[in-house]
Design goal:
The chain is of the alpha/beta class and 282 residues long. It has eleven helices and twelve strands. The strands form three sheets. Strands 6-11-10-9-8-7 form a six-stranded parallel beta sheet. A four-stranded antiparallel beta sheet has the order 3-5-1-12, covered by helices on one side. Helix 9 links the parallel strand 9 (216-220) and strand 10.
Length: 282
């Protein structure tokens, strides 16, 4: 899976991050460090969590200078603890210092998401599957969803193109009143086999959605009693029920009514704290 977080799309993300940070060059290092001076540095973990983004951090240095050597000493998905050595980088000191912040930004951000995802997954080992959302940092979705997977949760749709999710605003804008017609039109417009999901906000809407032909019905901001009733109304129909809205780690830990198939939470990406990792020169 780690190799899957690299590729042309990620190279473009890294290139943009480097341009943002380096601009016309690292004036401090140019002033103080001879161009040919070499050295090495180590990446140290300072908190307990799940490592993610090590291949991306290595690619940062490689894109600055192909002669830089990045040696991962852990792998994405590893449990890490304070004092653990995650990687070493060696080469020209100017290169190492030029890539330090960008590499750490990716590594701490992705490790933080993977760590939070692992806590969500561990909180409901026998409960519904936990999915992320599109509430990601603009431009970083591919990497952040990768980190969610590393942490043990699942990816919801990647964007607006790979799955239809009908929300209230779509219904209002369409002018259509038949949920079945809305689902049919979505199915016809998408690629063969594409799933169609419908979001509902109350049990009346849920009853209509049950007859729409949707694959998944999302219960948005509904309380536990309403969720339990939705499961009862669904009965043996082959429709998945997803709970969304306010799905925090605490709520995951309390559990959901039996019969809920999946939950989705933006907290996995928009509220994950960075994992504390530092880089120190040898």
């Amino acid at each position: 899976m780690a190799a899957g977080c690299l590729g042309p799309d990620v190279d473009r993300i890294i290139a943009l991050a480097l341009r943002e940070d380096l601009g016309s060059g690292d004036v401090t290092s140019k002033a103080l460090i001879p161009a040919r001076r070499k050295g090495s540095a180590r990446f140290l973990c300072k908190a307990r969590g799940i490592a993610a983004g090590l291949p991306v951090a290595g690619r940062v240095f490689e894109m600055i200078d192909k002669r830089a050597l990045f040696e991962p000493l852990a792998k994405d998905g590893d449990n890490v603890a304070p004092g653990d050595l995650l990687a070493r980088v060696s080469g020209r000191l100017r290169t190492i210092l030029a890539g330090e912040r960008t590499a750490l930004n990716f590594l701490t951000r992705l490790s933080g998401i993977a760590t939070l995802a692992s806590r969500f997954a561990a909180a409901a080992p026998d409960g519904p599957a936990v999915f992320d959302t599109r509430k990601t940092t603009p431009g970083l979705r591919k990497l952040e969803k990768y980190a969610v997977m590393i942490g043990g949760c699942r990816n919801h749709r990647f964007g607006l193109y790979d799955m239809a999710l009908v929300k209230e605003n779509h219904i209002r804008a369409s002018g259509l009143s038949s949920m079945a017609e809305i689902v049919r039109k979505c199915r016809e417009a998408g690629p063969k086999g594409m799933k169609v999901e419908v979001e509902v906000e109350n049990l009346d809407q849920f009853r209509h959605a049950l007859e729409s032909g949707a694959d998944i019905i999302m219960l948005d901001d509904m309380d536990e009693g309403e969720v339990a009733e939705a499961v009862r109304l669904r009965g043996s129909r082959g429709i998945e029920i997803e709970v969304s809205g306010g799905v925090t780690l605490d709520r995951i830990s309390r559990g959901f009514p039996r019969g809920v198939d999946r939950v989705s939470s933006g907290f996995l990406t928009h509220s994950a704290p960075a994992l504390d990792i530092s880089m120190k020169l040898d």
